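Hi there,

I know you've been waiting on this one. I reran it after we fixed the sequence typo, so this is the corrected version. Both the input and the resulting structure follow.
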Amino acid sequence: MADTEGLTVGEDGKKRCVWGGSTPDYAVYHDGEWGRPVNDDTRLFEKICLEGFQSGLSWLTILRKRENFRKAFAGFDFRKVARFGDKDVERLLGDAGIVRHRGKIESTINNARRAVELVAEEGSLAAFVWRFEPAPETRPKRLDWETLRAMPKTAESLALSKALKKRGWSFVGPTTMYAFMQGVGVVNDHVEGCFCRAAVERQRKAFKRPS
């Protein structure tokens, strides 16, 4: 049962962010992945793409199809996806294991090509993304459920969105980019009282920011 602070207590007695205890799939993702800092370019590219596919859908839908997406998009190796052509688009439109949305499929291929360009210019996708990490003093002193719900995007996610759009990326709006930043640990949005919050913060403090 959820409390007023946006927490839920699981059968294991642990307090989680309310969404993280709503299904077994979410619990695994919440406990072991969400908010943990990532510096691997392939994982970052995958998360950007999947957040784009999630637009208008639930994240649970995408999460349950993630392995299918990985198979369909060459493990999200953006150098391989960048070489996809019209035949691949048609193949993907016929793949019932993923979200068959032409615009999002074509966006993923486009973004792979833009990722190749970005890495050639900036060194890595990770180095680029982590530049948009907010300064600690700009973050809420106490992150409760109401604060989090009122924060679907931030100045930093807007800046990241603008920077990517300027480079030709698509399906990277500021709300989508904030969800991406939450997922890959650029911010720690586990609410106060969640058993993961302190562990994630320790990981973030120990994390070597890419440069």
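Quick highlight: The radius of gyration is 17 Å.

Best,
R. S.
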